[in-house]
Amino acid sequence: SETVRLADYTPFSHSVEHVAMTFRLAPEATRVTTRIRFGAGGTALRLDGEGLRLLALRIDGAAVSAEPDATGLSLTVPDRAFVLETEVEIAPAGNTALEGLYMSGGMYCTQCEAEGFRKITFYPDRPDVMAPFHVRIESEMPVLLSNGNPSAQGPGWAEWDDPWPKPSYLFALVAGDLVAHSDRFTTMEGRDVALNIWVRPGDEDRCAYAMDSLKRSMRWDEEVYGRAYDLSVFNIVAVDDFNMGAMENKGLNIFNSKYVLALPQTATDEDFARIEAIIAHEYFHNWTGNRITCRDWFQLCLKEGLTVFRDQQFSADMRSAAVKRIEDVLTLRARQFREDAGPLAHPVRPDAYEEINNFYTATVYEKGAEVIGMLKRLVGDEAYGRALDLYFERHDGQACTIEDWLRVFEDATGRDLTQFARWYTEAGTPRVTAEESWEGGTFTLTLSQDGAKVIPVAVGLLDPSGQEVRPTEVLELTEARQSFRFDGLAARPVASVLRGFSAPVLLEKPSSAEERAFLLAHDTDPFNRWDAGRSLAKEVLSQMVVRGDAPSALWLDALAEVVLDGGLDPAFRALTLRLPAEDDIARTLHEAGVTPDPDRIHAARRAMGDALAERLRDGLGDLVAPVPGPWSPDAGQAGARALRMQALGLLSRLDGGAEAQRVFDAADNMTEEVGALSALLDAGAGVAALRAFGDRWQHDRIVMDKWFTLQILHAGDAPAVTAALVEHPLFDWKNPNRFRAVFGALSANHAGFHRIDGSGYRLLADWLIRLDAANPQTAARMSQAFDSMSRYDADRQAMMAAELERILNAPGLSRDLSEMAGRMAG
Ligand code: DPP
Ligand code: ZN
């Protein structure tokens, strides 16, 4: 396969002044006519195009004969401005890859990012070619949508006009039997915008939360970033078959239906929070992505890192900033630190790829957002605001690079960001070591790093009584080793280092269990308070795994103190009560030079939960009391429910699931239904509840995904349960959500996936090979389960390597899966 390199970038030969397209939709034979007005650019023109049947080609109205090759069309064109017209035929009904124009549940829809537009028509399918589009759709479908503003319509046709020049990856078209949940929004510039969420008939009562999230996102982007919406209509469409979460097409966002549709009865609090975040994320792309886009796909983090950062800020403002930060770091460590530690590690801005779809990663997205958080911390909030204003002013309408982005900050602040730029170009999670000394009223913190980056390390000091004696200060670590002095202290302080997780690093700070228990009890920084408890829990778990120790009383007491403190935010208490995931323990052990044993980790984590349940025995009754008040999706209630469900899980270890069964039977919302069912499954008492759940929700695709996931996640023998479930009539493996619900759960069940008989590895490989033939993108994404191979013992490594080899030898393997398996096989 061919490698694409950042170093080889060259601008496109021609400008595109305007694009006019006509779609005559039919499932087996859709006709697409495309009229492109090119500016002058020499006589050689190369267009991208894949799987297109070329019917006609005209230059300035004169027929030209041309023969496409496998990836496009090379033409000799006039050495001046000209109009190229093509007519092609495509078959959306047979498009199972879900890229380009395809069908989902009887409707037509598109997904063009990153390179799907070339499956629709011949075009310079690259983000730095931007043009205004006019689209005509002819179809018997009642609702016909494309980007921009509606311009005309009649029976069987509609026309759309998008005045904002855009790259082809933002093109979208939808045609279907849809109904709208509608509202309006007036922008700060006085523009009246029609808002519609289009769904299948019957789903319209499930859109209220998404609509509310959209309006709050629009207002927030005006208030916080000064950015207003720029068309007369904003459409969102929910589709059941979708490779990703959602897509920010200009004026016509297309969403995986699970990130739109929600009722209290069908969606958990986490689902509600995710819907709010993804609606915001796609909306925010209108400025960070659409108005200012990427020059090439190596710059993907330019739009994704920034837009994730913005959606995280939004969720923090809508909910609890402290809780949001803890949740974001949990995700970062679980997904991005893992990625960075294995064979798939790459810089936030990669410099080479075979298949760009493989680079929509935790590193580009989540670490990309962390890098912006660091930048903001280093320059300060006010300068960040000025830099963003300058970014929008200077680059509106352009396709940009990370260099452009950093130059804006340099120009706005006068700061040299040469060293900072390494965060974009170097892979791997830096290690920072902290050492302390105390002498004559002076506390010295010495920080060292294994690289040469600029690392903002936020630090605060507490006195021995737990009072903060030095508020948070951002230390800038720029050298290999640096000392920072704090003078005039009455007593040796306790340092709270890397507050708010001020940089995405592995912090090594030799400190006693007592000191961490002290920080868990007293730290004024909520993130570090939580993280002290977490690092203590990891240490206890490691000792249980490695030495067979019992869980320490110190940890149990410190945790109980927080969990039973009614004065603390229930969401925070729930997060503190959550035990580290088995995969996280495996990574931590591996980093410490210990080969993780999945069975021992599983047993130790269970023993830890049992001990915790014993320790909290007297308090659990109160903690599982119903959450008062009418149901609401807000952060307060969600936190209370999270704490209740955590406690219910512990109580089930003591009562065999009796209380969980009562909660399950009485539940009037999905958070508690799923929470109670999980507790029952863990207690080995979930058979009846699982059946009841399946009977109740068998007609609801989104809820049934949970039914599949839960039984695999909580299975003792996850491969066996998975093997049985793929025979279930509702296992529709071509639906990405269903495939992920099953195989995502298999790889998330750490002990099950890594069973020493190799059955987990084998089953996943079998199905990746099968899925690859239909949907390479999702198959490649799911193959990442193998990226932790090098952590484990020789037997497991050999079995995983053999499965990767088997994948690589599969006939007709896609470029997507071949690149992923090849990188992991080494
Ligand atoms: N650009 C899309 C996003 O919003 C890709 N799924 O992240
Ligand atoms: Zn995005």
From TrEMBL:
Keywords: Aminopeptidase, Hydrolase, Metal-binding, Metalloprotease, Protease, Zinc. The gene is pepN. It catalyses: Release of an N-terminal amino acid, Xaa-|-Yaa- from a peptide, amide or arylamide. Xaa is preferably Ala, but may be most amino acids including Pro (slow action). When a terminal hydrophobic residue is followed by a prolyl residue, the two may be released as an intact Xaa-Pro dipeptide. Residues 209-422 form the Peptidase M1 membrane alanine aminopeptidase domain. This is Aminopeptidase N. Its EC number is 3.4.11.2. The keyword Cytoplasm does not apply. Residues 428-509 form the Peptidase M1 alanyl aminopeptidase Ig-like fold domain. Belongs to the peptidase M1 family. The keyword S-adenosyl-L-methionine does not apply. Residues 514-824 form the Peptidase M1 alanyl aminopeptidase C-terminal domain. CDD domains: M1_APN.
